[in-house]
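To the wet lab folks,

You asked to see what we're planning to order before we commit. Fair enough. Below is the target structure as tokens, and below that is the sequence we designed to fit it. If anything looks off to you, flag it before the synthesis order goes out.
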């Protein structure tokens, strides 16, 4: 077997490094290679009707449940913008009852992190800045999210930016 001295042949060294890198990529698990499932915020509201101060989440897997949730929360989602619930499911995340305006919920970036037995959905909970002038009104902020029916396995843990768990849900099909 004839060995080529790599110091004298930079092209051969580059080819060898590239081959090693590709071998590592090919050895990666299929889950590591797949893009994470896409989470999309559909709409949000400040007065979603939650009486409890504790955060919560609701799984919406069919059109009848979606209609009831929209009527109860006052959220607006035009029919033309509603997802195909055969391919997607919805998640309504409640921040809980709050004493003033200025609270809200939004997706963090990245929104989904895989775990060994499921996924973590990351949210950012907004609150008024200390000392800010805010209107005195009871609010109950919420966020309606769309998730794919495929690509999520196991429990979905919902956490805010501090790492507090708001809820854990089972995606439809994982029951």
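Sequence we intend to order:
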């Amino acid at each position: 077997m004839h060995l080529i001295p790599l110091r004298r042949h930079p092209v051969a060294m580059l080819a060898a490094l590239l081959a090693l890198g590709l071998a590592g990529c090919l050895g990666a698990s299929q889950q590591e290679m797949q893009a994470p499932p896409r989470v999309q915020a559909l709409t949000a509201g400040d007065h979603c009707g939650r009486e409890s101060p504790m955060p919560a989440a609701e799984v919406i897997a069919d059109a009848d449940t979606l209609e009831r949730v929209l009527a109860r929360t006052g959220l607006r989602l035009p029919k033309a913008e509603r997802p195909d619930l055969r391919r997607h499911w919805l998640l309504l995340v409640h921040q809980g009852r709050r004493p003033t305006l200025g609270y809200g919920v939004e997706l963090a970036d990245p929104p989904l992190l895989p775990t060994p037995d499921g996924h973590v959905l990351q949210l950012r909970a907004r609150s008024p800045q200390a000392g800010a002038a805010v209107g005195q009104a009871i609010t109950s902020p919420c966020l309606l999210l769309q998730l794919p029916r495929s690509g999520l396995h196991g429990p979905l843990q919902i956490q805010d930016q501090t790492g507090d768990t708001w809820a854990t849900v089972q995606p439809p099909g994982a029951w």
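Structural context that might help your review: The beta strands are 40-45, 56-60, 88-94, 104-115, 118-126, 142-148, 156-159, 165-169. The chain has three helices and eight strands.

Thanks,
Computational group
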